[in-house]
Amino acid sequence: MSRTGAGASPPTRPRRRGGPSARSTAGGAVVPAGGAGAISAGASDASTSDVSGPSASDLSVPDAAAIEADHEKVARSVALRLLTSAPRSRAQLAEAMARKDVPDDVAHRVLDRLTDVGLVDDAEYAAILVRTRHAERGQARRAIAQELTRRGIDAATAQEALTAIDREDEDAVALDLVRRRAGASAGLPRATRERRLVSMLARKGHHPGSAFRIVREVLDEEDAQQDRDDDGDASHDDAWLDSP
Predict the structure, then answer these.
(1) Distance, CA of 222 to CA of 36 (rounded, Å)
(2) Which sign, positive or negative, has the C-alpha torsion 26, 29, 31, 35?
(3) How far is CA 81 from the centre of its chain?
(4) Using CA atoms, how far apart are residues 149 and 172, in angstroms rounded to an integer?
(5) pTM of the predicted model, to two decimals?
(6) Is residue 21 scored above 80 in pLDDT?
(7) pLDDT per residue over 177-198, tens digit each?
(8) What is the domain partition of the chain in residue ranges?
(9) Cα dist. 90→40, 119, 124 in Å?
(10) What pLDDT, in 10s, does the model give residues 223-237?
């Protein structure tokens, strides 16, 4: 049995195979291989995996109901402002709302409410326009029908309103209009006067045949009146000469 001498090396402890192992600190805590940095990294990873960002549902989203209420407020304001100044057709009001970016469905809903309370009435609007254009401007049905179309009145509603005017009404209005306007061309050649007066009636939608007939009737009346005036003047002169 051999003895270990003073200069002999102490026996070596066998090394464990595998990766680095945990070690104990002075206080008894076990520190994993890699040191405190590994702990820090692990904590960071856990924090990253456990805390997620805001989802789409958590983001601030505009309240759709509030936006729709704002659109309705704009639509009502536009309609009432226009209706205060003059009657308007439904199509005219819808066009004005569209210029203010009011959605179509909101505009239709507001217009339906205004129709229910009588503030929007295309039939009444068309009837008013027919009466005023015919009586005040001397327009015929054709010109009024075109204006109704431009103002968004549907064909059936326009046709119903135009039944208030017939051919006799048109001729009476045209005759009155030519009589009032004929004086502006007095002194000009008859052909020039005829052309101007017929063109005026045509612009107001009167049929060319009726326009020529009415203009000639008025100018013939003027010529006949002028002849009577001339005869009266001549008779007066003769009577003055024959007086003692």
Answers:
(1) 120
(2) negative
(3) 14
(4) 25
(5) 0.66
(6) no
(7) 999 999 999 999 999 999 999 9
(8) 67-119, 121-165, 167-233
(9) 71, 10, 11
(10) 898 888 776 655 555
Residue 36 pLDDT grade (very low, low, confident, very high; cuts 50, 70, 90): very low
Residue whose token pair is 């989802």: 55
- In the chain, % helix, strand, coil (3-state, to 5) comes to 70, 0, 30
Q: How far apart are CA 170 and CA 205, in angstroms?
A: 10
**Residues paired with residue 30 on neighbouring β-strands, in sequence order:** 24
* Type and span of the H or E element at 30: strand 30-31
Domain 121-165 part of CATH 1.10.10: yes
Helix (H, G, I), strand (E, B) or coil at 119: coil
Gyration radius of the chain over CA positions: 49
Nearest to 207 by CA among 179, 166, 160, 164: 166
Pairing of strands 30-31, 23-24: antiparallel
- What letter represents residue 152's amino acid? G
The CA-CA-CA angle for residues 238, 242, 244, to 5°, reads: 150
Task: Kindly report the three-state secondary structure assignment for every residue of 48-82.
Answer: HHHCCCCCHHHCCCCCHHHHHHHHHHHHHHHHHHH
Which secondary structure element, helix H or strand E, spans residue 23, and what is its range?
strand 23-24
